[in-house]
Amino acid sequence: MTSGVPTGGPASALAASVRAGERSAVEVVEDHLARIAAGDGELHSFLTVTADAARRSAAEVDRAVAAGIDPGPLAGVPVALKDNLCTRGVPTTAGSRILEGWLPPYDATVVTRLASAGAVVVGKTNLDEFAMGSSTESSAFGPTRNPHDPSRVPGGSSGGSAAAVAAGFAPLAIGSDTGGSVRQPAALCGVVGAKPTYGTVSRYGLIAFASSLDQIGPFATTVSDAALLLDVIAGHDPADSTSLASPPPRASAAVQRGVDGLRIGLVSELAAAEGLDPQVAARTREAAEALAAAGADLEEVSVPAAVYGLSAYYLIAPAEASSNLARYDGVRYGLREEGDDITEMYIRTRSAGFGPEVKRRIMLGTYALSAGYYDAYYAKAQKVRTLLVGDFDAAYRRFDALIAPTAPGGAFPLGSKTADPLAMYLNDVCTIPSNLAGHPAISVPFGTDRSGLPLGVQVLAPALGETVMFQVAAALEAAAVEVAAR
Question: Where are the alpha helices (DSSP H) in 174-277?
């Protein structure tokens, strides 16, 4: 069944018009820069707008078109980058004061691949400090606001990227997803956000949070545009030792196929997760029914260890963070607070440079790795991770893909959870299992809550299952359009 499945999106349409010479890349970029100038003062989705560099890149695209050279599949398309991706000569802060003044001497691999595809980077977006958060409120440079209601959060940690796409500042954006940091803000902002299979997209040039969990992923307004962007940034990179050597699945190849005959499981543990808003549960059930109506064979499925995902994650991720963030010491780059000796300089620099949430996670991780506690906490969490992988493998022997809520609720008011870390952490209860397993997952907008704010439904797939994941996501997108039109 393929009727109703969208065939393109704003980004692909823009690229096609630029390649055909119908619009100039400079015109497209100026249009989006004007939107940012007019609207981002209220939302604060960007930390840095690279207007001059964007104009130069757009002019190069136009010169290539005039010379009869195809600039690439994203010709002239504006893209926003989460500010934990290194950009040569452009401030890269990871939302932290400790990287104040740092200008990377190189580009992240994904940035290079975007340029090769003809994309035009328009700026660096706000994020929770070092990607640690679910609301983009822990940024050292102030919070980002949700375009649907500026009194509410956009989600996190890639809230700036999600908000930029939702506000129309850029048709595409890049985020990173360690425990749901692409998918959760995508749900709260009403856009599409995907986390690929671990190792599918190079992490070279991504400022590390938790290296066994971090993965770079796309934001877009449509499933097909997200697939197009993923196809551009995916692929082996010898500079990243965790990069998969085999060619990645072509995500774009699947969006027209429909779901007729696919076996899809609704994950019972996530569909009844702690703190799940009844409206989210209802939208998820409606999404399941829509897939069944489109021809899928749908049943509930149990992934028992999913209920332990949040607990395992908040031992593994802080442990890796405590190791990764040890490099920020005021000696080589970034902030430096002087002291009477090197120890005092370290203490002053890290005290001034790191915010409360980062300090909290460093201390949690250091404790979990300390002598006498390693086996009780970190090692046990890794065993739970292994159990979770096994439970997912069992589910995927019966099903082609799984669905679940993306976030337990819609966008919440700014400041409502900042004083309660556990309440904040629960925002990722449905997204974390895919990171622990290394599997791909995507959030698709599906309906709204009683306040009219967007909600998302998540499609999960086995490792390297991006093809079937996008296949199901496109069918969900089409169903959401039909439901909204009723």
Answer: 183-189, 223-233, 268-271
Q: What proportion of the chain, given as a percentage, has pLDDT over 70?
A: 98
Per-residue tokens: 475: 């069918």
Which tokens hold the place of 107? 């580009």
**49 strand-pairing partners:** 123
In the β-sheet with 46-49, what is the strand arrangement from edge to edge?
46-49, 120-125, 78-82, 172-176, 216-220, 192-195, 441-448, 454-460, 401-405, 263-267, 297-301
Quote the CA–CA distance of 175 and 161 in Å, as a whole number.
Answer: 6
| Residue 360 in domain | no
The whole-angstrom separation of Cα 348 and Cα 146 is: 34
Determine the pLDDT at residue 3: 36
Contacts of residue 468, defined as CB under 8 A and 6 or more positions apart, other chains included, come to 254, 262, 400, 401, 461
47: which 2 tokens? Answer: 């930390």
Instruction: Give the C-alpha distances (Å, rounded to integers) separating 131 from 11, 21, 482.
Output: 26, 39, 35
Q: What percent of the chain has pLDDT over 90?
A: 94
Reported as a pLDDT band with limits 50, 70 and 90, residue 195 is very high
DSSP class of 81? E
Residue labelled with tokens 């959760």: 184
Confidence of residue 208 (pLDDT cuts 50, 70, 90): very high
User: How many Å apart are CA 354 and CA 327, to the nearest integer?
Assistant: 13
Please report how the helices 278-293 and 466-485 are oriented relative to each other, as an axis angle in degrees rounded to 10.
100
DSSP conformation class of 248: P
Of 7, 118, 9, 132, the closest CA to residue 58 belongs to 118
CATH code of 188's domain: 3.90.1300.10
Number of domains within the chain: 1
Cα 155 from Cα 173, distance rounded (Å): 15
The residue behind tokens 């907008």 is: 445
Q: What does the pLDDT average to over 70-99?
A: 98
Burial class (CB in 10 A: 0-12, 13-18, 19+), 461: buried
State which residues form the domain around 168. Answer: 10-306+383-485
pLDDT higher than 90, residue 84 = yes
Provide the token pair at 308: 């332990």
Residue 1 lies in a domain: no
Residues carrying an active site annotation: 82, 157, 181
DSSP 207: P
41 falls within a domain: yes
Joined tokens for residue 218: 């796309």
- Provide DSSP, 35-70: HHHHHHHHH--EEEE-HHHHHHHHHHHHHHHHTT--
Task: State if pTM tops 0.70.
Answer: yes
**Residue 312 domain flag:** no
